[in-house]
Design brief:
Length: about 260
């Protein structure tokens, strides 16, 4: 193949990736808007089962994921991973990926246990000290459904970082859509407004927490399918002696 043909194919490939990311990003924005509209429209704005409880329950889980894991993957991890891939060091890619995944998974698992066990005190004394007792109970229940979402999102984030570094964007692009769709479906199924949604499925606002948990699991499953095609190799343990792993740790948001 001559150079002009190769350059043309690369440009075509980049254009397809750009269109994919733009399209899924736009669809994600639409789904996010629809999710918020359905939550606000299908559940009361005041009272013990108001939407305030739903939004408050996300504060701590979102804080830990976006300030720790999301920042680590974008700033600390991918540049080091790209360097190994540039050297055609697939073994190094797998070792760094699994080491970071295991390290962050341990942290997020501990955070999840703390949120699950101490959900009510965290809501009462940290998130919403002026919230009514009935709302605190509802918020704490939703938060327990969300407690391990940061762990699921962290694993998904490591896997999608590897996929992006290797030029694979499809599963990275579509995976978040499943999360939004799951919450949207739960907002319809568990709505407290239409009377025909009663019975054993009538969980009300708490059902949104279940929808968010199922959505996080679906997102991880989709991402994992994309990793299978890369022959991703996971191994237990953490390569503490790796120089590049130390570089990643120094760039983590939790580093002094």
């Amino acid at each position: 193949m001559n150079p002009p043909e190769s350059a043309s194919r690369r440009r075509a490939s980049i254009s397809k990736v750009a269109l994919l990311l733009m399209g899924t990003s736009l669809l994600g924005q639409v789904l996010g808007f629809l999710r918020t509209k359905l939550v606000n429209g299908n559940f009361p704005a005041t009272g013990p089962h108001s939407t305030d409880a739903y939004f408050a329950a996300f504060n701590i889980p979102d804080f830990f994921f976006f300030t720790l894991a999301a920042g680590a993957l974008g700033v600390a991890f991918m540049p080091v991973l790209s360097d190994h891939l540039h050297k055609n060091d697939r073994k190094g890619v797998w070792e760094l990926s699994t080491s970071l995944m295991n390290f962050l998974a341990i942290i997020m698992a501990v955070v999840g246990v703390v949120m699950f066990v101490f959900a009510k005190p965290l809501i009462r004394y940290v998130i919403a000290p002026h919230m009514a007792p009935e709302q605190i109970d509802t918020t704490a229940t939703i938060m327990r459904f969300l407690a391990f979402n940061p762990l699921l999102f962290t694993i998904s984030g490591v896997l999608t970082s590897v996929q992006q570094t290797m030029g694979r964007f499809f599963f990275f692009a579509i995976a978040p859509l499943f999360y939004n769709m799951s919450i949207i479906i739960s907002a319809v199924i568990f709505s407290t407004l239409p009377p025909h949604h009663g019975g054993p499925w009538h969980l009300g606002l708490v059902g949104l927490g279940l929808g968010a948990l199922i959505g996080a699991i679906l997102q991880l499953v989709v991402v994992a399918i994309g990793s299978v095609k890369l022959n991703f190799h996971w191994h237990p343990g953490i390569k503490w002696r790796s120089r590049d792993f130390h570089v990643i740790l120094r760039n983590l948001p939790l580093s002094p």
